[in-house]
Write a structure and sequence with these properties.
The protein is α+β, with helices and mostly antiparallel strands. The chain is built from four helices and ten strands.
Length: about 200
């Protein structure tokens, strides 16, 4: 199972970009705890990511993604403008449909690195198995699903392709004006989840 999410600050101020960063930190922790593989590409802003595309894969990916979809409210005094009166910062998480193939990734152009890494969910990585980090044109994924480097290399290419396809499809939609409603119409009420303070503690 693979689910693709768009995490957007809309046209909100820098505090909303900080909220996107907070969401990504929590999402990574929850994915690790649930044994879900997570790949992320961010669009940088001045105070944090303006938006991010997150690809979740594995058993439990759909359930985890559903927990995050919708409007998210971060209630915290501005850390960028100490005297600013506003304390409510919104981001929204959308489910993106499966993206068409954006570009063919030649395996020969992908940098593969064998690394030792713990498995998702805190599992101990077998010393005889090899996790793989795959890098291609600024995109990066880490795969530790299987017991051999050969299997992990194949999965790394598949996940790298999925991440690139999703990111470029969203970028193309933005250029075509088709994603205007996603990034610029973030709702400001009825949040699905509420987080408080600099520690991003869920209410």
């Amino acid at each position: 199972m693979m689910v693709v999410l768009l995490i957007s600050s809309g046209n909100g101020p820098g505090e909303c970009q900080q909220a996107v960063a907070q969401v990504l930190t929590r999402l990574r922790a929850e994915a690790e705890g649930a044994g879900v593989e997570l790949d992320v590409v961010e669009r940088a802003g001045r105070a944090g990511p303006v938006s991010a595309v997150a690809v979740l894969q594995g058993q439990g990916a759909e359930v985890l993604a559903a927990r995050w979809q919708g409007v998210l409210l971060w209630r915290c005094p501005s850390q960028l403008r100490p005297r600013h009166k506003r304390k409510n910062w919104f981001v929204e998480v959308f489910h993106l449909p499966e993206a068409p193939r954006a570009v063919f990734i030649d395996p020969e152009t992908v940098e593969m690195q064998a690394i030792r890494a713990g498995g998702p969910g805190g599992q101990h990585q077998n010393k005889t198995s090899g996790a793989i980090r795959a890098n291609w044109q600024g995109y990066s994924v880490v795969v530790r699903d299987q017991r051999s480097q050969h299997q992990n290399r194949r999965l790394a290419l598949e996940r790298l392709q999925a991440l690139v396809d999703a990111d470029r499809a969203e970028a193309q939609a933005m250029r075509d004006g088709q994603a205007h409603w996603l990034h610029h119409q973030v709702q400001r009420g009825d949040p699905a989840r509420v987080f408080d303070g600099p520690g991003f503690v869920e209410r």
